[in-house]
Every structure is written in structure tokens, then in C-alpha cells.
Design brief:
CATH class of the largest domain: Alpha Beta
CATH superfamily of the largest domain: Bira Bifunctional Protein, Domain 2
CATH architecture of the largest domain: 2-Layer Sandwich
Helix content: 25-40%
Strand order of the largest sheet: 6-10-11-16-15-14-13-12
Number of strands: 16
Bound molecules: adenosine-5'-triphosphate, manganese (II) ion
Structural class: alpha+beta
Low-confidence stretches: none
Order of helices and strands: HEEEHEEHHEEEEHEEHHHEHHHEEEHHEH
Number of domains: 2
Number of helices: 14
Length: 483
Amino acid sequence: MAKKNAMKSYRLVDILSKPNKYKNLTVKGWVRTFRGNRFIALNDGSTIENLQCIVNFEQTDESLLKKINTGAALEIEGELIKSLGKGQSVELLVKSIIILGEANPEKYPIQPKKHSFEFLREKAHLRVRTATFSSVMRIRSMLSFAIHQFFQEKGFCYIHTPIITGNDAEGAGEMFRVTVLNPKNPELNDEGNVDFKNDFFGKETSLTVSGQLEAETYAQGLGKVYTFGPTFRAENSNTARHLAEFWMVEPEMAFCDLDDNMNVAEEFIKYTLSYILERCEKDLIFLDQRFVNEENSKPKNERSEMGLIEKIKFVVDNNFKRVSYTEAIEILKKSKPNRKGKFKYIIKEWGTDLQSEHERFLVEKYFKTPVILFDYPAEIKAFYMRINEDKKTVSAMDILFPDIGEIVGGSQREERLEVLEKRIEKMGIDRDELWWYLDLRRFGSTPHSGFGLGFERLVQFATGMSNIRDVIPFPRTPQNASF
Ligand code: ATP
Ligand code: MN
């Protein structure tokens, strides 16, 4: 039966941004707090702001008042009036309340007090009802949209690369196997190893660590493509910057060298960050405050010199510093923490891989700006990266950010068949597995480039959240796949 005179319900974000347009209305949301049997702070997830709803408790049933608890879902009809109190411009004079879903105050874990992020990770199904997590998730959503917007405006074609892969060339050892074989008693081959011929795909398969190789094939026909999807790494690194399942943005471009690649990556990051500066102001102001409070609880020398919004603006407004690996090694060798033995890994010679302590020194202490490191030693980089004239380095580039370290890893791809074949052989990779990848170098090969941006690291930077587990709805990490 249709309700008579049913009033349309509105979202708080619309009401609070143009309050003059509204008078009598219905809102639906969850109780954040209920004070003095009179003031409900209602939130519907559309904005960081709550709507203050004023209950006339003398005219309200006690049994109903008892059900207005933090976390309960309500439908409230009322009249929007100018607020007399401080802290809000309008408030809702309640005419009627319907309890849509109760929340028992003895059992509902998200109470109006400060909860630690560790505690909230164990309540991952409810944590989005807090101000911090709802802000982070709105920004995450806006950033994903900005990513599509950027590439679509630039004429990139969005392609969906496979999640299940039969390539083991990419990330040998750190992949999650995909199988339907009986774990108790898998059939063995003559050599006593598991016989994957009987498995679902007739071969060993895994969850992808990157969509790059497949994206390259499409770039060599569509010109400019990007893939944006989940990737998986079984590396057992319990850090604040690693997830076992994370989202990666990977553009691939034909007719594109390393310089073009760096230009696109820098423009891309700045675009997405400006996008949220323009559209997520209230969430950013809130997270900025949270960030500053957190920083102030740290010892002085470990505090960030800038606030969150300031940091984002700084990245948007300044050129990233481009430095070759060789220059970086010279700087690091001479640096104070290296000379004084303060680094855990002392830089002795050219050719060593940089650890995050070195990356952070370059970004946070030395250049004080995002850094693009390029031309890395071939020895420490992947097989598909283009060998430079010097035969020692490859056309690789990593973008390093303050607090989070590496946010982008990319390169110009090796387009010369013989050079690539030699490299594959030298690295002991099974060449037959890559026949289709090598075909790209046989037929209409082009100088081409691409990069991968770890989406959660971007969200971390944009929200000031120090742990990557707090910027994805349901984090997957070692020993943790609940929800
Ligand atoms: P790192 O050195 O930080 O472990 P990587 O060199 O292994 O990263 P790439 O293979 O270059 O990473 O992947 C491209 C991007 O994906 C990285 O620049 C980073 O932003 C992101 N990334 C890599 N591994 C993870 C992970 N486990 N969790 C979240 N993001 C990741
Ligand atoms: Mn990398």
C-alpha cells in the first residue's frame, strides 16, 4: 500500500549544502549520538556532517526514546529551521520518528568515543559508520573516479586484464596459486611433483600480480590503454604499506619513451589529487585535523612539517624532482646517516637496491619533494625493462612520496626482440611461457612504456592514514582474511 502524502527523503549532503531550499522533509540515517533525550546527531553517509535533530521528549513515547541509541537506523520527519545553537546552521525539529533498525547499546561496538584503528579493524563490517572511515571511503571512491576521468579524457581505452594468470614469469614465488586439485591427495607426475595437467586449466595458475604484460598487448593495437583492478601478492611483508590484495592502476602506451612516461605519471597523480581537493573539501578538513592531532602525539623530530591538505597542495603545485639512480647513490653515500652508520643498510657501492629508509631520506630529508628516480641497474629490475645505451642500466622509473615511499613503479619496455630474448635467458625465465609476449616484438613492435600505481598508497597519501589496512574496506594481510 502506497503511503499517503509520503514525503520524499533527502540526503544530508544536499540538505546541508542548500538548506534554504528545504522546509518539511524526511531524512533517513544512523544515530551517531543522542544527548539529553533531545539532540540526535544523524548521519546518512553522504557527508561528514551530521544533521542535528531536536526531539520534543515530553511528547515522545518513552519506549521510543529508549530505542534512539548510537547506531540505530531512523527515519525522521520534521521541519528544517535555522539553528539557535552553535556548530550548525540548520537543525531539524522532529515531528515523527520511525525506528527502522535498533542497535542494542550493550552490544553495538561503535560507541561515541575514540576507538583505536586496531580495534576498528576487528569490526571492519561496522567501521565505515565512523567519521574517519566514511571520509576515507568517500575519498577513495572519488579518487577511483578521477583515475577513470583522467585516462578517458586523454583517450586511453580501459581494458580488463585477467585476474587468473598462467604466467609465472612475473612474480615467481610470491603468487597465490589457483587450483581445484584435492589438497590432501593431489595426483603426482613421474617426477613426484603435483601434476597440474589434471587441474582446472590444465596447467599451474595463480592470481595475477600485475596486469602489465596483458595490457602491453592491447597497447600495441589500441595505442593507449589502462587497467585498474585487483592484484595479489603472497609476500609475507607485514608492513603499513603492503597488502596481499591491492588495486593497481596500470597504463601502457605505445610510441612512448621514459620521459613521456614520467610526464604522464606526474600529471596523472597531480590530476587525481587536485580532483579531490576540489570535491572533498569537508572530508579533507576533517582528516587534516585528525592527521595533525596524530602528528602532535609523536616526538617533535618525527612530526610531519606540513598538514594533510598542505602536503597534498605541495605535491600538486611543485615539480617532482627527477634524479638518476647513479646520482641518488652518490647523494646517499655522502649522506650523514650513511656516514654515521644510522641506516640499517649502509650504501657501499653502485648496484645495490634501495631500501625504504634510503627512499625516505631522499624524499623527506634531502629533496623535500616527491622524487622520480630513473635509470636503475639492470640487475635489480625486471626482465621487460629497456636496456640503456650504457648496457648497465634500464629505463626504469620509480616515484617516491613522503611517508609512503614508492607509489609508482614503471619503465620503458624492451621492444627489441633479440635484446629481450637474451635478457630472458640470462634471468633464467621460461621463454616458452612468454611466446605471445615475444610476438609483440616480432610484429609491429614500438617503443612503449607504462607504469603501475598502487591505488591504496595513493589513498593513504590523500587521506593521511598511516596504515594501508585502513584505506581499503576489507584488508587482506598475512593471517587475516576475515569478512
Ligand atoms: P615495494 O617495493 O613498495 O614493495 P614493488 O616494487 O614490489 O613495491 P611494483 O611491483 O613496482 O611494487 O608495483 C607497482 C606499485 O604497486 C608500487 O609502486 C606500489 O605503489 C604498489 N604496491 C606494490 N606492492 C604492494 C602491496 N603489497 N600492497 C600495496 N601496494 C603495493
Ligand atoms: Mn617497484
